């Protein structure tokens, strides 16, 4: 009987590497960094082990590692001193993000510095926008997002990443940036951002959980994929340069659809809960952390992501380098 011998191409490492369809490298990663007000702080985040709350005066310690690992991009999240109803420290020119961006660009002009544009870390109620009663007021929020994005870009950000899920925010931000002379600054839109329980560890880390209710009236229902395509389409029409799917691991089908339907770069955000699950299981010795983490990241690339935002960016880059050294001995 004639049958196909697929195993011929799996015989040894050499042939397996020759026919490999997907690769990952440090160049695929963006590293999220949590910057905090205060001095001399570099404190491990309990829910995101191996990641830190860092003050601007010690930011260079993290950035040195980023550069050393060959990672090209960072994304900043801020923990402000002061929160209020309208998140005013988010657009303060001496706010935490603005200071971090200035420092990063001063130290490493070539590093690609992205800022998360959202309000939940800055509002005292923890929602991603301006409230009207208990509802987030979409159009009012746009004005604030515009101010926040502009202040990040004035501080030197290369790219802004709106993660609020308000309608029209990409168009609004694009317009504000263009009319202030920042036509060349790009937008990575959190286009398909789901209302996900996988954000739990981040909300602990960023102190950004909503004080009442949930985010279901602006973040997407995990059950929907057609809706994700509509969100992506709007963001592209409005001027997004890169589209994002978030979370990643449980949404690889969404990544694949985005890749197949749109010829724009696709970013996948492997969120805090995905990371924390692996760390926790590894700490019990239930899994091989390195193998699992690299397999997860590879699966995101295979699903079609061009960019992966991951808390594993540094560790994974070191593991990949380690493997390369072993292979070339
Ligand atoms: C801000 C924001 C969140 C995350 C990224 N930007 C939290 C949220 O939407 O509740 C989550 C990232 C993660 O879990 O790693 N809105």
From TrEMBL:
It comes from the Bacteria. It comes from Inconstantimicrobium mannanitabidum. The gene is hemB. This is Delta-aminolevulinic acid dehydratase.
């Amino acid at each position: 009987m004639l049958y196909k011998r697929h195993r011929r191409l799996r015989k040894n490492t050499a042939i397996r590497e020759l026919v490999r369809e997907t690769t990952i490298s440090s160049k695929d990663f963006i590293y999220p960094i949590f910057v905090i007000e205060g001095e001399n702080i570099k404190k491990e985040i309990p829910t995101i082990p191996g990641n830190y709350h860092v003050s601007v005066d010690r930011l260079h310690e993290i950035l040195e590692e980023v550069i050393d690992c060959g990672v090209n991009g960072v994304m900043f999240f801020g923990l402000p001193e002061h929160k209020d109803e309208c998140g005013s420290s988010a657009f303060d020119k001496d706010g935490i993000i603005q200071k971090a961006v200035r420092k990063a660009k001063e130290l490493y002009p070539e590093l690609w510095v992205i800022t998360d544009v959202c309000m939940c870390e800055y509002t005292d109620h923890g929602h991603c926008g301006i409230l009207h009663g208990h509802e987030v007021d979409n159009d009012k929020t746009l004005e604030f997002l515009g101010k926040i994005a502009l202040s990040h870009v004035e501080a030197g950000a290369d790219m802004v990443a709106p993660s609020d899920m308000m309608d029209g925010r990409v168009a609004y931000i694009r317009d504000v940036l263009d009319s202030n002379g920042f036509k060349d600054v790009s937008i990575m839109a959190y286009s398909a951002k789901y209302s996900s329980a996988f954000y739990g560890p981040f909300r602990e880390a960023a102190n950004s959980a909503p004080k009442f209710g949930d985010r279901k009236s602006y973040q997407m229902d995990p059950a929907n994929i057609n809706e994700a395509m509509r969100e992506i389409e709007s963001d592209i029409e409005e001027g997004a340069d890169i589209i994002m799917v978030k979370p990643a691991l449980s949404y690889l089908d969404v990544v694949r659809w985005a890749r197949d339907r749109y010829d724009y770069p696709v970013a996948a955000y492997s969120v805090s809960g995905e990371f924390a699950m692996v760390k926790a299981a590894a700490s019990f010795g239930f899994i091989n952390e390195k193998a699992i983490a690299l397999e997860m990241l590879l699966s995101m690339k295979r699903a079609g992501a061009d960019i992966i935002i991951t808390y594993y960016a540094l560790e994974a880059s070191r593991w990949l380098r380690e493997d390369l050294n072993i292979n070339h001995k």
